Amino acid sequence: MQATATEAFIGSMRGPVIRRTDADYEAVRSLYNGMIDKSPEMIARCTDVADVVTAVEFATQNDLTVAIRGGGHNGPGLSSVDNGLMIDMSMMKGVRVNPTARTVRVGPGCTQGDVDHATHVYGLAVPAGIVSTTGIAGLTLGGGTGYLTRKHGLTIDNLLEADVVLADGRIVTANKSENADLYWGLRGGGGNFGIVTSFLFQAHPVNMVYAGPVFWDLKDARTVMQTYRDFLPGAPEELGAFVGLKTVPPVDPFPAEHQGKRACAIIACYNGATADGQAVMAKLLGALPAPLFNWMGEMPYPALQSMFDPFFPKGLQWYWRGDFVKELTDGAIDAHIAQAQKLPSALSLMHLYPIDGAVRRVGKSDTAWNTRDATWSMVIAGIDPNPQKAGEITRWTKGYWEAVHPYSADGCYVNFMMDDGDDNRLKATYGENYDRLVALKAKYDPKNFFHMNQNIRPLHS
Q: Which conformational region is residue 357 in: left (phi greater than 0), alpha (psi within -120 to 50 degrees), or beta?
């Protein structure tokens, strides 16, 4: 009977259903993070909302665990599942821009690059992350921080509406006036409440930007981080800039004499006139030692968004940890630098992304994303192409996190959680919003059908 049900399911799908015996199974099941290896029983490659509903109903009727894949960029590999059903929406990629209303309707399989490509021709952009291969669905549901955040808020602060397939197969719309409680929960609560099949975003004028990286030798990192810390709060919100500890990539076009050096970098984007951006950066750079190199210049916004893509192809080994940071003390800076001196690979890094400006103009209880009073969101990522280094980069990341965590706030941006997203960590992350999220989960997904995520369990589980 199960075989008959499976054949009926496959026949009712517009998109292909990939099984273990199919020639393309290995390629389709592969994940962005090469450290994660999962083997779903089937992969439903949805082409439309009807396919998503069909897949949900089949999984419910046959007691299958499901995982949801959008753009396929999830670090902990939560977009797949062993022996269950992957509902894969990566082919649902439509983007429709309304230039008059400055809104963008986005399919769940879109990457950030897909959205940037569609909006740039209109001189618009949706605030999102910093790597164009990032899936817009997972990024949004977790919060979404990037170069435009200080001026225009998190990605969820620009989410106007979402269409959602619930665990019982119903299709609902969530916005300020319709299913407003679900709309609240989707903005930071992850994939706990349903499968979003369409996002409607507010876009903002963005075209050419003054942007790029500036690198200093690690010996100057203390001065750079202190100066950045003190400068940014008073800088115009048009300037989005994060600071990182990393390695000068040992590849062209980076200067040969600096390749492989441990470094401190500021990667900045000024959304405005180039002359204004140069003037703002001159104030920052004037207080700092001479950098190894300064590659800031005028460029199209999508060029900035895709700048790091060549370094982070699919299939690398990743292990990351994060924290929210309210104050970057001198002691914290020293702890960071001590750990950066032990970088285990050329791609491993630490970034501090600013959480201020427009983010703080939204109330802590206005969305599920609670930490509006943070100053930075920190991520530490051990990254290497060699599977044999998986243990080393994991140990380094955990050790780094343990060294700097005493200087951090409680909780972490959920998109930077790996295997640390337990109840206590989520309670610390969502603060006073946590109980409301638990109640919302009980309303929309009482059986915890959607649990392959940073899981908020319903009241009775």
A: left
Residue 458 gets the label, from left (phi > 0), alpha (psi -120 to 50) or beta, of beta
Residue 415 contacts residue 139 (beta carbons within 8 Å): yes
Tokens of 1: 């009977």
> 297 vs 110, 238, 281, 293, 303, CA distance in Å?
28, 15, 11, 12, 11
Beta bridge partners of 87: 44, 68
User: Contact 52/41 with Cβ under 8 angstroms?
Assistant: no
Number of separate helices (H) and strands (E) present in the chain: 14, 19
Q: Which residues contact 127 (CB under 8 A, 6 or more apart)?
A: 144, 146, 148, 149, 152, 153, 154, 155, 157, 158, 204
Sorted by where each starts, the structural domains of the chain and their CATH numbers stand as 3-88 (3.30.43.10), 95-205 (3.30.465.10), 208-416 (3.40.462.20)
The pLDDT tens digits of the residues spanning 262-315 come to 999 999 999 999 999 999 999 999 999 999 999 999 999 999 999 999 999 999
**Smallest Cα–Cα separation from 117: which of 146, 137, 141, 95?**
95
* C-alpha pair distances (Å), 85 with each of 2, 17, 197, 373: 14, 10, 17, 39
Instruction: Enter the pTM of the model.
Output: 0.97
Task: Give tens-digit pLDDT for 157-189.
Answer: 999 999 999 999 999 999 999 999 999 999 999
Cβ atoms of 30 and 314 closer than 8 Å: yes
